[in-house]
Amino acid sequence: MQSTLSRRRFLERSAQLALATSAAGSFLAACGSSTTSTTGSTKTTITFWHAYNETDTENSTLLTKVIPAFNKQYPNITVRSQDIPYQSLLQKLIASVAGGNGPDLVRTDIIWMPQLAKIGALVSTDDIVAQRKSEFYAGPLATCAYKGNYYGLPLDTNTRVVYYNKTLFSQAGVSQPPATTADFKTVASKISALGKNIFGYAEGGLDPWDTLPWIWSFGGAVTDANYTKATGYINGPQSVAALEFLVDLYKNRDLSPSILGSGNLSTDDALGKNQVGMILDGPWVPPTLQQGYPNLQYGMALMPAGPSGQSASVVGGEDITIMAASKNIDAAKAFMQFMTSEQAQVLMGITGQMPVLKSLAGDSRLPSYFSIYDQQLQTAYPRPVTPNYTKIETILTDAFNRALRSEASAQAALDSAAQQIDPLLQG
Amino acid sequence: MEVPPLDVTHSSVSVGHQKMTTRRRSRTFRRLLPIYLFILPGMALFLLWTLYPMLDALVMSFFQWNPNPAATSPFNGIANYTQALSDPIFWQAFGNVLYYTVVTVIGQMVLGLAVALLLNRKLFALGFFRALYYLPVVTSWVVVSVVFAFLFSAPSGPVDWFLGDVLHLIPDTQLWLGSTTLALPTLMILGIWKGVGWNMVIFLAGLQSIPAELYEAARVDGANSWTLFRFITLPLLRPVITFVTVILTMGGFGTFIPMFILTQGGPLHTTETLLTYAYTNAFQTFDFGYAAAITYIFAIFVILLAIVQIRVMQRKVEY
Fold first, then answer.
1. Do A7-158+317-381 and A161-314+388-424 show the same overall fold?
2. What is the pTM of this model?
3. ipTM passes above 0.95
């Protein structure tokens, strides 16, 4: 028996409850923000909601370095930072929108943008984008656009690459991280052979975030480039091959069964505890591993290339947005501008938050491991950009689940997913 | 209401019927006034925090509700209700809740009554055992959920290790909370374990209100333990059983926290309850109107069920 309760998972779960039991809490918290004039010498307080990690340096950097630096420029604006666990952020946010009061600014996951813009919850940032458009990378900036207008600024970007445990690799006699999906399978099974509860590859679940890197590396896709049709893409031969690849890994026990939601350990913890050979994860992981497993020997590699020779991954990241109910839009815009300035982007960059400014490419103040992420981002794709994304996410997760559980063939599961997604892409 | 001054000196025989009634009414009113005043704060809170949101949700359920108060929401008629009736996940959630409720209500009552019978006699460290069984009831749902997640994690969680590596009763591939067939039963074990203590307390109270003479008289007539239980204990516990069944059924249908924390309704909606599904629809996909309709269908069903249960079980027993 090796399993221990991960502290992070415990915090996540407690946080979910905190939400479940005190839905009213968000309203009450929101009511507290004072609303004085932004002009002149009067003090203004703005509230900023985000999900920066509290277990490593993200949140502490925001509080002790970034906000104080902002206050040097704007001594009259007080920033009330509220750290909300990622899993409950959207729920709390929508509850505060419905209540007509909430935070002034939010660090929103890029996949929520169309959904929030559609209901009119966000303030347009067309004025800022018109001046600063060329400063941002095009990909992250595009996540702020909805029907021809901008509703925020890109704040950080990321993707997923392979992290591998060097100790397990050497025990299994593997010297190189896998370069192709075929290699990946071979390496995974060599590592799984090391012990009953050691797995070659572990994945946190079957969300699109978890699975789409494989779909794209195999040359598949979710929809066409304009997000109008899923049939022929998510159930096309390459997408089906990717899903079959995962099913095979799972059936050979080279992929940890924790992918089906039975586990109790996050994948980076499993890597740190030498229980897993390879995981896919984002640029926030090295600081976390440094803190939790300072002696861990690990390496990083690009996603293995699929049969067509392409290594592909998924684009993640966050935007900073102003809520339409904010009464301090000028002060909020000042903070938004500051958070996307070089100074703040470098400070947060050191904690693993990749900058979105072209001017910071290869900047020596940033962690050197960003280079592999920069490289992977060249062939990383966004999840479908549509207000119905959260519904599509459930459909895809269910389809992958059915295939891994042998309740349907990969082809049948994806055919039915395509059929359900198509109507959600209309209008 | 106009309250006439109370005239105690007036003792004429000509006091009319009308006046008497008024006086009596005013006296009643004065007597009851403090009671109403005591109820008022609670009632005000109930109206504000319970009744108002309930009516608000009812209105919401007829709209394609936009959570943004600045936006307009189109009227939707009964479309949200018809959508629910043709939604396979809604019916799956309904079935799950029914399954969960039947198993956990029976499980809790049988075990709760058994423990109550054991602890309804002179026993060493009686208070300790009663407290022990009651402990899960007062423990937070989150805490016990997290503990269960740890116990039932797979591979290599304690339960998995014991049943698999030690007893070799289950295959290595057992998934517990990740399994479409075992996730809900695992949550049922949690629900039963957590509820036994509450049932025990209620049944103990019921058992202690049964007069001891009945047992003595029956024993004189030669009845054995089973007969005593079958023909005295069980019939006289009927009102308690009715009460417990109704309360537990409502609780079972409203179960939310363990699913929300441990499985989020998954895998493949096999632990989806009506409330987790409503929650996802409201806060994840922003279909507030649809979520409100789901909760209303749920509420109507539970109310009807409670009425039926009370009608069926409320037969009086007298000895």
1. yes
2. 0.83
3. no
